[in-house]
Amino acid sequence: MNLMQSISQIFSRLTEVPDQENSPFRYKIVRRNVAILMLLITLAPLSLMTIINYYEYRSVLRDEIVRPQRVLVNKAKHSIELFLANRLATVNFIASAYSYDELADESNLNRIFRVLKREFEGFVDLGLIDSAGFQVSYAGPYSLKGKDYSEQSWFENVQVNGAYVSEVFKGYRRFPHIALAVHHLPENGKPWVVRATINTAKLDELIASMGLDAESDAFLVNREGVLQTNSKYYGQALDRCPCIPSVSYEPTVVERVDPRGRSVMVTYCYFPNADFIFMLIKPQAQVMKAWYTLKADLFIVFAISVGLIVAVVLRLTKSMFDKMKEADDKRALALKEMEHSHKLSSIGRLAAGVAHEINNPLAVINEKAGLMKDLIEFTPGFPDKDRFLGPVGAIIGSVERCRTITHRLLGFARRMDVEIQVLDVNDVIKETVGFLEKEALYRNIKLNLNFARELPKIESDRGQLQQVFLNVLNNAFQAMEDGGTVSVATFERDEATIGVTIQDTGHGMSEDTMKHIFEPFFTTKASGKGTGLGLSITYGLVKRLGGDVEVQSKVGKGTRFTVYLPRKHQDSQGS
Q1: pLDDT of res. 137
Q2: Which of 37, 48, 121, 471 lies at a C-alpha separation of 20 to 30 Å from 29?
Q3: CB-CB contact of 505 with 525 (8 Å)
Q4: 3-state SS string for 441-454
Q5: Which residues are within 8 A (CB) of 316 and not within 5 positions of it... i.e. 6 or more apart?
Q6: pLDDT at site 16
Q7: Nearest by Cα to 521 from 331, 380, 385, 347
Q8: Start-end ranges of CATH 3.30.565.10 in the chain?
Q9: Which carries the bigger pLDDT value, residue 259 or residue 101?
């Protein structure tokens, strides 16, 4: 239950969305959480499957690799058992086939031994021992006649069990050998023991016949840990063996670290009728080579799969959230434009009301000033005529200036009502520049107007063009220090398009900045001094009018905006 609650809490945290809609980290956090969630959903089953396959394949391959070793050890054990049993049966036959007197005759015993050596490899000597434990006769390379074995454990063992196979030992012979003894009890007379020894080199030959590779080692060891045959890595016969496994009469495989620090796989088997253990030792790196290769391939496939999943998830989430952010930005921009339009509409209505209210008293002032002028001019002998005509003329001039200002306000008010009309772009620019003359004068900014003569008129919306030019000019003013220069020029690009360039001597923009200037909410102004919507709205207005905008800028050299406008409106072109 706690596990399920923990998993539920993790999923709820990963699917959590920040409350701040306009937070710059909102999309990053959501994208990160979704990516983590997708990676968990995809990588968890893949990892689980890889782990299961890892252990399943390891178990299956280990069985496939270990089975031949068990078979090999079992065959080698049976071969050694058969060899010892055959030699013991031969000694038993000699003890049964010949009488005590025949075996006591050394010439006869030597003849039997010569035949024995010729027919059966490995025998070193042959001897007859009486019931008291004395060597009665001996055939072999050593002088062992008369030796007393009565105190040795093997002599008692053979009398009790009837047959005996010794461990490897040196004894009187000074070289490693195995003793085979058979106790014979005749119907009449005293019992005797026939004893023979076998050279352990024959056992080494049997082990060598297994055809082991150069890194493997096989040998016999007794239960006390004494080597019975030579070992490639752990010593010679009668040396101590470092590792004795637990008792098992079936071929068994264990993993060990040998005295040389190698990880080895030990396959062994105990002899049921002798004090021997047969051991086969192979380095794990060699035995499990196929598994290591498969494991490497498995991990490579897993790593590639994880890499592909991570790449696809990151690419997918990036694409998805980029589109989501773009859609949200467009929605936010549309809301801002709507809000901006409502504000401008309100300002426009206010400006129109103010203009109309001002125009009425201005008309009265203009009429009264005109009447005064007429009276002064047409009244003969009017005293101080010139003195009064100057102020009256100034009044009429000021009224005309106020009329021009109210005319501009009315034009600005009408800008919100989309109306396609034939217009002169030069006149539109002059009207727009009029709004900035006072600021230019105050900041000592020089305005250069270079209008093309006989510029073709275009079909467009006056109010939207005014907003386009006003936004670009405002940006130019803000990009310059006091005393700069703004140059505005118009030209005919081709038969279907005219162009307007607005160039400033401001600080300019870097290439990286120019890539983002038309993006919504992108601004280089200080916090709180810009919305990042001016150029975005400008770009949208120009595009809606069927035109295009180009920007050229260098840091420290200034910026030039070029606006291209079609001569024919899109609806006119479509018709």
Answers
A1: 93
A2: 48
A3: no
A4: HHCCCEEEEECCCC
A5: 38
A6: 56
A7: 331
A8: 418-575
A9: 101
The Cβ of residue 279 has, within 10 Å, a number of other Cβ atoms equal to: 23
Helices (H) and strands (E) in the chain, counts: 15, 16
Distance separating alpha carbons of residues 8 and 179, to the nearest angstrom: 76
CATH 3.30.450.20 is right for the domain spanning 62-287: yes
Amino acid at the residue 405: I
Residues of the chain with CATH 3.30.450.20: 62-287
Residues 441-457 as b or e (16 or more Cβ within 10 Å = b): eeeebeeeeebeeebee
Distances from the Cα of 562 to the Cα of 75, 125, 516, 555, angstroms: 95, 118, 17, 18
CA–CA separation, 296 vs 277, rounded Å?
36
Bridge partners of residue 134, in order along the sequence: 148
Rounded Cα–Cα distance for residues 362 and 356 (Å): 10
Which string of DSSP letters, residue by residue, matches 332-343? HHHHHHHHHHHH
Q: Dig out the tokens for 559 from the structure.
A: 């910026």
> What is the Cα–Cα distance from 444 to 439, expressed in whole angstroms?
8
Contact between residue 221 and residue 235 where contact means Cβ atoms under 8 Å apart: no
- Specify the CATH number of the domain 418-575: 3.30.565.10
Structure-block tokens of residue 34: 């979704």
Q: What is the mean pLDDT of residues 239-262?
A: 85
- Identify the pLDDT of residue 416: 47
Q: Cα-atom radius of gyration of the chain, to the nearest Å?
A: 57
In this prediction, residue 574 carries a pLDDT of 46
Out of 3-12, 123-132, 197-206, least confident range: 3-12
- Burial of residue 142 (CB within 10 Å: 0-12, 13-18, 19+) is middle
Query: What pLDDT, on a 0 to 100 scale, did the predictor assign at position 389?
Result: 72
